[in-house]
Structure formats: C-alpha cells, structure tokens
Specification:
alpha+beta, FAD/NAD(P)-binding domain, 5-stranded parallel beta sheet, oxidoreductase, GMC_OxRtase_C, flavoprotein
Amino acid sequence: MSDAQVIIIGSGMGGATMAASLAASGRRVLILERGDYLRASAHDRDDGSIFRDGHYRPEEEWLDGNGAPFNPGNYYFVGGNSKFYGAVLIRFRREDFSPLKHIGGTTPGWPISYEEMEPYYCMAEQMYSVRGKAGDDPTEPPRSADYPFGPLPDEPAIAELRKRLSSVGFHPSFLPLGVDLDRWLSRAKTPWDAFPDTNGGKLDAETGALNAALKHENVTLRTNARVQRLLTGEGNRITGVELSCGEVLLAPTVVLAAGAVQSAALLLASANDANPSGLANRSDQVGRNFMNHNCSAVLALRPFKRNDSIYQKTLMLNDFYLTGGRNGEPLGNVQMLGKISSTILQASSPLPGPVANWVARHSLDIYAMSEDLPDPQSRVTLENGQIKLNWKRSNWDAHLALVAKLKRVLRKAGYPFVLARPFDRRTPSHQCGTAKMGLDPVTSVVDANCRSHDHSNLYITDASVLPTSAAVNPALTIAALSIRAAEHIQANNEAA
C-alpha cells in the first residue's frame, strides 16, 4: 500500500510548484519538508539578527574544496530558500538556451529551446502574480502574454537613477517581481531582499504555490521530515524514501526538489548494490557542474544627496547581458539590491560604524551578476557522509569587466564615487547544475522533462537540472520547468 501517489522531497520553488501543478489532478501528493514553518518573530525584520547574527542560518557545516568546514547560507523552512529570496522572477533570455561564447568559455546550450519554455514561463508568471513591464529591456525575449500585474513603483532615488541612465544612452527596465508591496510594508518598512517572509508579502514558494496546493484535500505537507535516502526495487524503479527517523514511505512516483546541493547529496547517499555510485548517476554527472553566480555589490554615491529608499529593488540594466566584452562577449545582469543599512555594511565589511552609517545613507546599492560556466570538476561530493562543496569559480574575468563597465556608466550618469565588493563563497548566489538536463544518458542526469534517465519514476525539479546558470535569477525558470514536468507526469498518466 503506497503512502501517496507522488512524494515530493522539498517545498521550495521546484517542489511547491510541482505540488500546485498536480493538485487539481486528484493524485494523492505528499510533500516532505525537512524544516518547519517560518513564523513571525522579533527577528524577521531585524537586520542585525539576519545579517550580523545569522539568526536563520542552519546549524550545519559543509566542507570546502580544501576540506575546511564552513556554515552554508542555505535555509531549511517551508518554502525553502525562496523565503529569503529577492523575489526577482525573470525569464532566461532566448540566447541562454543555445551555446554562447563567453570570455571564460562556451556554454553547452539546453536540450529545449526558449520557444518550448515560453508557455510555461507564462503559467509560472500567473502562479506567482509577477509584477513587471514588457518592452523596455533590449534583451527581453518574445512573450505570448503580458505580466499579470504592472511593475512596482520606483522610489524617488531609483526613479532618478533610471532617468540618469537613460540620459546617457542606456536602457534601464523594471525588475519582474513577486511582491505584494502593501502587504510587505504593512509589517515593517524594510527591504524584502534577503529578509524572511512571514506575512505573505512575497510571492515565494509557500505563498505563491504551496498554499494553493494545500487547499486540495489530496495534497499533504509533512514538516520536520528529513529524507536520508531514496529506495529502489524491481526494474531499478524508485519505490519510496527513508526518513532520518527510520520511517519508510512508499509511492509510485518521486519528485526530488531539495536544492542543487542537497538533491545531489541525497542521490549520492542513496547508493546501493544496483547503483554503487549513487542513484541517477550512471553518467557520473550527479554532483558535477555546480554553478554559483559571480556577484558583487556595487555602491554608487553622490556625497550631498541622501538615498531615503526603503526597498529600492525595482530596476535592472541588461545592456551588457549579451555583449560588452572585448570581443563582444556577454558580461551579465545588473539589478538593484535591497537597500542596505549600516548594520548590513558592518556585517560584511571592515568599515567603522560612523563611515558605514554615512555610506548607507547616501548609497544606491546595486547587484552585478555574471554567468558561472559548468565545469565537471566543480562539484558536490560526500566525505564520510558530510557534504563537500568544491566550487571552481569560472568566467571571473567577465565579471570584473562587468563591474568595471558599471562603474564607468554610473560615474557618467552623475555618481562620482563608486565602490565594489564581491560576494564571498558563503553566499548562495543561485546554486545550480548538479543533476544537469540533457538528451544523452551518458552525459546527463535527467531528460528534457526532468525525468531521470536511470529511474523512470524519478523526477528532479529544482535548480540542479539547469544545464547553464545564465546570468539572471533562476526562480521563474525553476517554476516553469516544474510546471512542464508536472504536465508530462499527467500526460503519461503516471501515478494516476
């Protein structure tokens, strides 16, 4: 007797979207989340608790490539990492799905095209109530439907930045966002970027998809249910999962959506006699090709002009997304960060208090993001059961070029002082790639429908399947792929 028709491991963007997409089918769906609900507290809008004290960081250590332990910036709550995300829900660009030459190498392309993904992007934008404006961005791909809602308003300092960038020949556009602004600000006047969502102000995995799924009686969520291995049976099919408490749960279809690092680790930890190198790993690609965007914070200042913004994160610039390198190579995406405070600055830099306070009051805070390229030696492994993350950063010269160009653009636009600082390795800047999608079972982990080549009833629907990282936030693409995979499950009458 099965415990569900579909077991979903993880309630983040991929898992929650899968649950919402299957809910109306009537299938008995069980979502297993290793964490608990993120509840309102005195910490959730306290920048000191979040950025200085690491209140929400897990009590967990991974090993880096040299074997040194570190505390990762991943979160384990209902809704996954999306509870803390910047709520940017942007499509990968059309060119991202084809091989693209970068300063650091050439991307492999995807087994599916943008045109195949486009209808699912529309569905994902509807599910997550995306606020945006089409037509301003020169890299924007074709779309068959407009955004469900118009863009969030610029605050005065951002409206001025938009005007100044346009006046010197650039094309700033509105960030597509999943934020109910009035609801977010009703709890406290803070940014949402990296702040936890406890009042439903962000359209994260919980508020955008999971809550809708759980309105159906056939969908159940179990919290504090950590999966320690997947189980296989006859025909090498997945039979179910084993929890850390020893309980075994059975289902004819299993969806793995624990995140790029944890999904790879779970597949490796599930090795058995029939699969000695781990599940879904006939290709020896599980855990390989780990990618994490190259990112820097760039602060633009006008000494006699204060920036009194609360949230700030409404503008992006893609003029260097597809070009800008010495030979025309892509450099990356530029978008606003959530407004920093002196507390945030002091937590991440050596600036003394008075200086940090002055900078925070006057700065426009910008996020420069460049593509990290897949490398089989950049990987997740297990060492005596502990996760080892050996990230081999790539394409760094492109990122340096992006930051240099952005500094010049900002000075030209009237911001004479520009500071930049790269994010460190502890920051999970859109981790992806450890169970890559492809047509060839010898060189990839899942097919174009996110189904394992090795196990016909196993799907993976988190960022681990992304063949490339592109240079934009991956949340919407994860959601679109999950909707597409759910459609495939239903079309093939699986787990019915």
